[in-house]
């Protein structure tokens, strides 16, 4: 049995050296047997951008989740199978999704048992989807687009990081809602996926547009953008602000271009955003949101999306790394755009 630990807090970009694969202590029998705990075998681990702020030394309330503990197993969303349970409603053999450890076996204790949910084995969708389209990123795309963006049929929608776990879904949900949707991504291969696989009406590689991102958006949105689903921040946000239509909406889902800035870069003004006056002149609503506030929407979302998956109206692309030892590289790959689709780590065949 093995686990991946954070060796030390990270400043700037994380590397594989910041993490370590170690043998895990034998399962803590006492903890596993404690009332209300569940021992699970982990099958799929999710790599998510929010894990990067948790790798930084905690300062004040900078992140909405607490920092990882150096020397302890990294934690994150996953799909697991129950081995032993003293939690009512969970029995050996059950498949579950929730927050687990980056290790072969985990003992899930309160309060994390409160986030455990059983997976219906006969749903007819791949188990790994419960880290993505049927997990946290899926609900993020659904509430972020439908609740925060207030879209109307016929409106124009722009999505950044559009081929990723969240972005590929926002694009498809926008198309299903009758919007005209354009996405940006960081490689020509991803742009092809956006147009051919996910049905974006148009897409572009932002790395090929030089410094003129505002011009790139202007060409694709000659009448302006009604809805911007923001995943990256920085220069893309500045360009989008210039292209918003009157009464447009910006849903701030994430700002991944900022997550690896050093303290010095932040003090030097790297998080500053130009063109904010467009919010006033164009009466744009810009709103941040986090998925944990919307967990109660999950049953409605699942009931809506599963038929779309089964009948092929919504597709999902995953990038699956094999084995626990591949997990650190998979996680840091998010910050270099290496993942094509939702990044998952599979432990299922080990
Ligand atoms: P993705 O699967 O999209 O993976 C991250 C992608 O971000 C990379 O593949 C890369 O794609 C892009 N990227 C990385 N660095 C940069 C950069 N410096 N500038 C521009 N793009 C970059 O991740 P998710 O779909 O899981 O997450 C997308 C966003 O949503 C993140 O900001 C995340 O924090 C946020 N999020 C927010 C949630 C909430 O509750 N508010 C919940 C879940 C996610 P490319 O090749 O296109 O550059």
TrEMBL record:
This is Uncharacterized protein. It comes from Avena sativa.
